[in-house]
């Protein structure tokens, strides 16, 4: 679905992100721009997957304004906690800023990855993955989201198989692990 709603900018190059080591110990802070230059600096992040009553997952196409992976399909919502912000607070803040609603979330797993986007920059994140359920009306922030849609698990699996290049690298890692390692627990949560 597309939309024409005007929204506030919620993501800034100068916001301070939380630098971490591989054990997720906080070791400092740098602005978002610096964290994503070159091969990136390891920082804390999160990804959220929202499912509706039918078990379909909310997917978003990233805004054309994004520096990294613009117009790529990704999970429902993803971002970073800011300096001094607990990740649980950050997940709810960002869902409201990006999707226009809040819901309870369940932590699933944490993983580290690094991915370069062309010669523009990189993600280098220790990312916590959450799932949630909601039937709330999606009110996407146009500065963050170009399009959105709900897909069944089977539809999403097929789209990834047909053309994996249309999806962000973190999403592909997360979805593969969710489907192979965590799916029974996710299905129980969704019941």
Walkthrough of the structure:
This protein is 26% helix and 34% strand. It is an alpha+beta fold and 191 residues long. It has one domain: Alpha-Beta Complex (Nucleoside Triphosphate Pyrophosphohydrolase), CATH 3.90.79. The strands form three sheets. The protein has a four-stranded mixed β-sheet. It has a three-stranded antiparallel β-sheet with strand order 5-4-9. The chain has a two-stranded antiparallel ribbon with strand order 1-2. The chain is globular, with a radius of gyration of 16 Å. Residues 1-6 have low confidence and may be disordered.
List the helices and strands and how they pair.
Layout: E1 16-20, E2 26-31, H1 32-35, E3 43-51, E4 57-62, E5 73-74, E6 77-79, H2 87-99, E7 105-117, E8 121-133, E9 145-151, H3 153-162, H4 169-190
Parallel strand pairs: 3-8
Antiparallel strand pairs: 1-2, 3-6, 4-5, 4-9, 7-8
Derived structural class: alpha+beta
Q: Give the CA-CA distance, first to last residue.
A: 27 Å
- Anisotropy-based shape: globular
User: What share of residues are in beta strands?
Assistant: 25-35%
Q: Are there runs of 5+ residues with pLDDT below 50, and where?
A: 1-6
Could you name the CATH class? Answer: Alpha Beta
CATH superfamily: Nucleoside Triphosphate Pyrophosphohydrolase
Count of the domains: 1
Task: Please name the CATH topology.
Answer: Nucleoside Triphosphate Pyrophosphohydrolase
The overall strand count is 9
What integer is the average pLDDT? 94
Q: Report the order of strands and helices.
A: EEHEEEEHEEEHH
């Amino acid at each position: 679905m597309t939309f024409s709603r005007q929204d506030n900018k919620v993501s800034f190059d100068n916001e301070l992100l939380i630098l971490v080591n591989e054990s997720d110990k906080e070791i400092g802070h740098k602005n978002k721009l610096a964290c994503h230059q070159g091969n990136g600096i390891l920082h804390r992040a999160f990804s959220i997957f929202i499912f509706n009553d039918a078990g379909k997952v909310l997917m978003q196409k990233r805004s054309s304004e994004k520096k990294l992976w613009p117009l790529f399909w990704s999970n429902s919502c993803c971002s970073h906690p800011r300096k001094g912000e607990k990740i649980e607070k950050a997940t709810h803040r960002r869902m409201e800023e990006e999707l226009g609603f809040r819901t309870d979330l369940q932590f699933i797993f944490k993983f580290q990855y690094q991915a370069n986007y062309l010669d523009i920059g990189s993600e280098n994140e220790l990312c916590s993955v959450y799932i949630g359920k909601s039937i709330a009306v999606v009110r996407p922030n146009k500065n963050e989201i170009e399009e959105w849609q709900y897909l069944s698990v089977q539809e999403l699996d097929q789209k990834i198989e047909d053309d994996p290049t249309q999806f962000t690298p973190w999403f592909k890692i997360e979805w593969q692990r969710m489907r192979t390692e965590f799916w029974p627990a996710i299905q129980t949560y969704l019941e």
